[in-house]
Write a structure and sequence with these properties.
Largest sheet: 6 strands, antiparallel
Bound molecules: iron/sulfur cluster
CATH topology of the largest domain: Rossmann fold
Order of helices and strands: HEHEHHEEEHHHHHHEEHEEEEHHEEH
Strand content: 15-25%
Structural class: alpha+beta
Radius of gyration: 24 Å
Helix content: 25-40%
CATH architecture of the largest domain: 3-Layer(aba) Sandwich
């Protein structure tokens, strides 16, 4: 309403994460059609429930879904639709959450070169927003009348526990789909039933008050065991027996979501990589040293002492990135050379790649790989 007073022919961008309430989708579509506004409904092709099997449920401090279901699709849309840049006017407000308390009037989107974001109502209170809507003869999203305080994705971990109880009554099918996913996941991770029923799943690292409460009821909060159990790295180090070079021999156990040929291809972003299919191995040559990576998880690195550790870390990150790629597409936009494409996981065009490493920025799979490596004492 506000933006239209400035520019009558604005276009509306709605990122439909696939986890929106049906009422929200209907509300947005009706609003735009009533006002004859051009609506771009942006949808990604990432299947949230498939991704959640790999990453576990999102949490307040671990919102991988924002990248796969929101930022990724939006980045692709904006880059395709407005290649010369654009200005978006957003309704985010500083009172919404601690994270949003530092919103500026004008910001650049770090993931989308050329996007400038304006937040004209950042200092408004919720009441002021509601009054403004009614004052202009409009109606808000009907879910506000049903005691929802903030309306985003229906399973958002940032929602209050009371809102999940509300969801159970207002949208029993949505509630039971998520609830049964959470219980399957907690069973696989040997967690207490109350971990789900009392809402502990909504954090990855629990705040002190929540930890205290769990302790007082004897609830163990050690989670994410499944992922850690699935990934392990053992390494032995020392001088190479047949020379003076330092070598590291390691064995990585990791999820096998994609064939080894994808790993061999991705190693090419670290240097010159050659896939020896008969040997089931990829040979990698970089300016730091050499590595041989076998399909069975065996990795051999030969280089100077520090360089060997660094190269091992990079190789492991690439392997995990291939296996845990969410296909969010953020790396496609970060690679100015157009060297990445997406199939079942990301694919590198060796002719174009110059090993700059920029595609690693903002990649959820790399962030996750780093945390796991740190957790198992290898990062
Ligand atoms: S490799 Fe690319 S597409 Fe895959 S998760 Fe990382 S940024 Fe997203
Ligand atoms: S960003 Fe750099 S390292 Fe990544 S694919 Fe593109 S050229 Fe290669």
């Amino acid at each position: 309403i506000l933006a239209r007073k400035l520019m009558p022919r604005i276009e509306v961008l709605f990122i439909n994460t696939g986890l929106e309430f049906p009422e929200t989708v209907e509300y947005v579509q009706k609003l735009c059609s009533d006002h004859k506004l051009r609506l771009h409904e942006i949808r990604g092709d990432s299947d949230f429930f498939e991704q959640a099997k790999i990453f576990g449920p999102p949490a307040k401090d671990y919102r991988w879904c924002c990248k796969t279901n929101k930022l990724g699709p939006m980045t692709s849309f904006l880059a395709g639709q407005y290649p010369r840049g654009c200005v978006t006017i957003e309704g985010r407000r500083v009172y919404e959450s601690f994270n949003r308390s530092s919103i500026k009037a004008v910001e650049r989107n770090p993931y989308v070169p050329g996007q400038t974001m304006l937040s004209p109502i950042r200092n408004w209170r919720a009441l002021e927003v509601m009054l403004y809507i009614h004052w202009n003869g409009e109606l808000p999203n009907p879910l506000y009348d049903e005691d929802y305080e903030r309306i985003g994705c229906w399973l958002c971990p940032a929602s209050m526990q009371s809102e999940f109880s509300r969801l159970k009554e207002s949208h029993p099918n949505l509630y039971s789909r998520w609830n049964s996913f959470l219980h399957d996941w907690r069973q696989k991770n040997d967690l207490d039933e109350r971990y789900v029923d009392w809402g502990f799943w909504r954090w990855r690292r629990h705040p002190p008050k929540i930890t205290e409460m769990a302790d007082s009821y004897g609830i163990c909060l050690a989670s994410w065991g499944g992922m850690k159990k699935e990934i392990s790295l053992q390494a032995v180090r020392g001088r190479s027996p047949c020379g003076l070079e330092y070598s590291v021999e390691a064995v990585l156990t990791s999820p096998q979501n994609h064939p080894f040929s994808n790993v061999a291809n991705a190693l090419g972003m670290l240097g010159e990589a050659k896939y020896e299919e008969d040997m089931g191995a990829a040979l990698l040559k970089t300016d730091k040293g050499r590595a041989t990576v076998f399909a069975n998880g065996h990795i051999m690195v030969i280089a100077g002492k520090e360089e060997a550790e660094e190269l091992l870390q990079k190789v492991v990150e690439v392997i995990l990135r291939v296996q845990m790629c969410t296909k969010c597409g953020i790396c496609l936009k970060n690679c100015r050379r157009g060297a990445i494409s997406l199939e079942n996981t990301f694919i590198v065009d060796h002719e174009r790649c110059n090993h700059c490493g920029k595609c690693a920025q903002g990649c959820i799979a790399i962030d996750e790989a780093k945390k796991i490596l740190k957790g198992i004492g290898a990062g």
